[in-house]
């Protein structure tokens, strides 16, 4: 018998209306949005469901995405009895994994992600950039970044053939030119508001660490695999340290998925907007079974399997 993993997407998958049908259909989903509002003072339902110019700004994106992911998660777990053996999330999606692993109270989770979004937005407001590099391996990308003048590093190792670099705008552009000369198929600048998962955001991680100091954490009820080490976290002793580091460290997503596959996970359920993680997974292992649950109809299809 194989294992099941819940996986949670990060920024970039958000859209107006995400989670609305779960909100309309399930009382427990409405309760999650209410809890997010109580924790942050923001009308998160309005932020997610009505046209606005805030949804794509990091400090709002993060709480909107996490609330949607947790609302869907609670429906799966508590309404439908769907459980996982382990979990992981990409960047802010790691906080969805923390919810699945019950590492902290949901209100604390929402307060933290709100603060994380603000700290990341404020840490490096101008001059940062991120670019997706297609068609080169992480070793080559890392080596070229290392010999490029200025601050540029790997932000995400998503899957074979897709690496994201981050850092100072001029350094990212210079590295992208070198990477294309080295054989990259394309280098695509990303529409982001900062150089996320860069050492330039170390200050944001320090602020988050100060806030984490006042939050109670518990041993995970299921292991979650952290972005920083692509390894399972099975007790609470390093949760805070790893979350503080995560802000300015590379997201080792390809390694995370490879670790899950090696440990017997054969079914993945992507919880939240979009199909980004499913696409990555199919490039990592074409034979992996993956389901997306972003709408109620997706959940109904999953239950029929």
Q: Could you explain the architecture of this structure?
A:
With 305 residues, the chain is an alpha/beta fold. The chain folds into two domains: 3-123 and 199-304, 3-Layer(aba) Sandwich (Malonyl-Coenzyme A Acyl Carrier Protein, domain 2), CATH 3.40.366.10; 128-189, Alpha-Beta Plaits. Helix content is 47%, strand content 17%. The chain has 13 helices and ten strands. It has helices at 20-25, 27-40, 44-49, 58-79, 93-100, 106-123, 138-146, 169-181, 202-212, 239-246, 253-262, 276-284, 296-304; strands at residues 3-8, 86-89, 128-134, 152-159, 162-168, 186-189, 224-225, 232-233, 265-271, 289-293. A six-stranded mixed β-sheet has the order 8-7-2-1-9-10, with helices on both faces. It has a four-stranded antiparallel β-sheet with strand order 4-5-3-6. Helix 7 (138-146) crosses helix 8 (169-181) and helix 9 packs antiparallel against helix 10. The two termini are 16 Å apart. The model has no long low-confidence stretch (mean pLDDT 96).
Could you tell me how far the N terminus lies from the C terminus, measured between alpha carbons in angstroms?
16 Å
Task: State mean pLDDT (0 to 100 scale).
Answer: 96
Q: From the coordinates shown, what is the CATH architecture of the largest domain?
A: 3-Layer(aba) Sandwich
Please name the CATH topology of the largest domain: Malonyl-Coenzyme A Acyl Carrier Protein, domain 2
Query: For the record, what CATH class of the largest domain applies?
Result: Alpha Beta
Fraction in helix: 40-55%
How many alpha or pi helices? 13
Supply the helix-strand structural class: alpha/beta
Number of domains: 2
Annotation, overall tally of beta strands: 10
- The CATH homologous superfamily name of the largest domain equals Malonyl-Coenzyme A Acyl Carrier Protein, domain 2
Note the main sheet.
6 strands, mixed
Q: Please state the overall shape, judged from the principal axes of the Cα atoms.
A: globular
Order of helices and strands: EHHHHEHHEHEEHEHEEHHEHEH
Give the strand content.
Answer: 15-25%
Regions with little confidence, pLDDT below 50 for 5+ residues: none
